[in-house]
Structures are given as C-alpha cells and as structure tokens.
C-alpha cells in the first residue's frame, strides 16, 4: 500500500490550495520553501489558460509565494504539448489570451484564420461574437475542436464570469461537435506534467481542493491523492462521490515536516 513516504514528486493545484483570492493559505509558503530546500521536484497546476507561467509566477510572488515559472504547468501548456504530439507544426484558430497563444507558438503551431487544423478555445475576458462565429464555421468545415478546460464559470470581484466551458457549450450547440478537453479533470494534464518532471505515477502525489477535478483526475492518473479542505470541497462534499482521496487534510500546512524536538542538555539534569 503506497503511503506519503513513498512520494518523491508533487503536483499541486494553485487556487484553494496555495492561495485564496491572492492571499497565501497558511503553510503554503513554508511548504514551497521546504520542497525547494530538499530538492523535491514539483509543479503548480492550474486550469487557467489566460496567463503565461511568467505572469503567474509574478502574481504568486506578489502574494508572498515563490514559485519559479518553470515550476508552473497550465492547461494552456498541456494543450500545446498535446497538439504538438498530435500534429507537429499544425495550425490553429485560437480564442484565448497570451497564456494560450504563447504556449502554442512555442510548441511550433501557426496561428491562422485560414483553414486551420484546430479550433482551440481557452479562457479570455474578451469573448468576441465575431471570433465565436469564425470558430463555428471552421469546425463546420472540418477543423478539430479543442478546449483548454471544462470550467463553465470563473470568479471575479463582481461575481461569476462565463468561462471556457460556457463558450465551448455555445459552439457545441451550434456545431453538434463536442471539444476534446485537455485540462483537469482529464488525467492527461497530470501525465503531461509528470513528463515535464520526468516523474512516474508510482512516486508522485497530487494536492487539490476539488473532488470533481483534482482528486478524480489524480486517481485516474494513478497518483497518491491529497484533498485539502482550504478551498472548494468539505467533508460533506466528499461523501457525495463514489471515490475517495488517499488523504484528507485541513490544509497544506499538514504536509510540512515536523519541527525537530531539541533534546535536553544532560548536564542540566
């Protein structure tokens, strides 16, 4: 039976695990520092495809968390990695922001509005009726339909916003075509992250705050799964699902190594 002591590499979700609305979750900074000091390979995962790893690293640093950009794996990077494996040097019509277009460009893809091989939909704050119409027409003409993640809504200070899953559903309704979704809960995102680390499922753990994405994808990828109750899921949420994580913790603070106990000076006894 695999235990936490068997884990040499870690994948961790970001929102609800390390930060909550730009505020670090207690223990997150210490855990990241512990991993760095011990040389533990890790990646911070997010379904957010808007920002590049450099952007996210800077945003986390502003929140007090030190995560190098090479230690961040987004659904945009996973999507680019997948498409490169499917059709090296292919072309795509993209609905999304810099995080997605940069990842696809670095993977050798050509962005085009003329007969693309793929239509790739990611998250953006500027969904355009014109762009959505073009996507529908390209898919109708035979372009393959890809989405970076299935999240229907995203948070904002004013309330919920429509996100990738909602726009994908609109395109699906118009075309009759379902997208292939690369991000969580597709375990492919975890497998691509492990490939990035050179890790194996037998010695890799996944930390998340959602049963319906982090935990189920971790289980399907064969990882040691840790659910923290500092984000979306609570104890009642766990009971709703037919699967369970390997561990349930209050927060990542419980993953910190215990402080060494100082022995008493025998001369004082």
What would your notes on this structure say?
With 269 residues, the protein is α/β, with parallel strands linked by helices. It has 9 helices and 15 strands. The chain has helices spanning 28-38, 53-62, 75-86, 98-106, 129-140, 164-175, 188-197, 211-220, 235-239; strands spanning 9-13, 19-20, 23-24, 42-46, 72-74, 91-95, 110-111, 118-121, 144-147, 153-154, 161-162, 180-181, 204-208, 224-228, 247-249. The strands form 4 sheets. The chain has a 6-stranded parallel β-sheet, sandwiched between helices. The chain has a 5-stranded parallel β-sheet with strand order 7-6-8-9-12, sandwiched between helices. Helix 3 packs parallel to helix 4 (98-106) and helix 3 (75-86) crosses helix 7. The longest helix has 12 residues, at 75-86. The model has no long low-confidence stretch (mean pLDDT 93).
